[in-house]
Design a protein that fits this description.
The complex is a heterodimer.
Chain A lengths: L3 H5 L1 H5 L9 E4 L2 E4 H22 L8 H21 L4 H24 L19 H23 L15 H36 L5 H31 L1
Antiparallel strand pairs in A: 1-2
Helix pairs in contact in A: 3-4, 3-5, 4-5, 4-8, 5-8, 6-7, 6-8, 7-8
Chain B lengths: L2 H39 L4 H31 L6
The chains are: A mainly alpha, B mainly alpha.
Subcellular location (chain A): Membrane; Plastid, Chloroplast thylakoid membrane
Protein name (chain A): ATP synthase subunit a, chloroplastic
Family (chain A): Belongs to the ATPase A chain family.
Chain lengths: 242, 82
Amino acid sequence: MYPEIFNSNMFTLLAEAEVGKHFYWNIAGFLAHGQVLLVIWFVIIILLLLAVLGTRNIERIPTGFQNFMESAVDFVTDIARDQLGESFYKEWIPFIGTLFFFIFGCNWAGALIPWKLIELPEGELAAPTNDINTTVALALLTSFAYFYAGFSKKGLGYFKRYIQPIPLLLPINILEDFTKPLSLSFRLFGNILADELTVTVLTSLVPLVIPLPIMILGIFAGSVQALIFSTLAAAYIAEALE
Amino acid sequence: MDSIISAASVIAAGLSIGLSAIGPGIGQGNAAGQAVEGIARQPEAESKIRGTLLLSLAFMEALTIYGLVVALALLFANPFNS
């Protein structure tokens, strides 16, 4: 995917960030980005393990790990309740919570685990959210979710929303349905990729100490982006339910 | 790849990230200044203000990130690179 010219000059000498190089898997005729799938399954297994460990022997008065998991679920519940309001938030907690934990896990998995130690034939293991396909999939899920929310609540009356203040705004309201997933996916993708690129460039310039603040910023940005994605998803669903 | 196209893409990538940093920079400065003012006036509301500030800063940062995505597309996935 690199233009020829970048392979030979200082762009790639300085930063070995392998943007656009993938470890392709051929699954039933479809090309899949293997490095993304590997890390995604790693994150899913970690999340499942945490969930199983947190709920293995549930007690009325939580102790130890159950305490931690309950506070995590409380945090997600607060996101949903803040946006959706008391009457609707319960049925959307699973969706919002899954989005938050998955994106959070993906971002932190990319930032905390030294994936570069594992060599792949092509491409490299990194945060799955630095592949635009992952973020677009998440954003499209959000789109379907708010359409589903609107339809299940209002039926075909949902389309009244498009001519809501005045019919003149119809094109802008339709455009909004396309810009929502676009901005959601680009925001997440760009933030994570930007962090990884900055860290790679700084590491290749000064390998010690100097990249540390950027890495810490990356960990922070990863959690904030997960929070923003889930908050926005909840806000869009709330808008459709209104 | 045509050298004119690659030169134009590199310049465009620089411009896109540079120009898209101006607006959010001003916006973030405004927001942070107002937040500091709010904290100075009402120190007990600090945690609430900080949460809102961080969230809105991230929203503004997203605008720069759009420019960055365009720059990255120009550099690594140039559509005119036949």
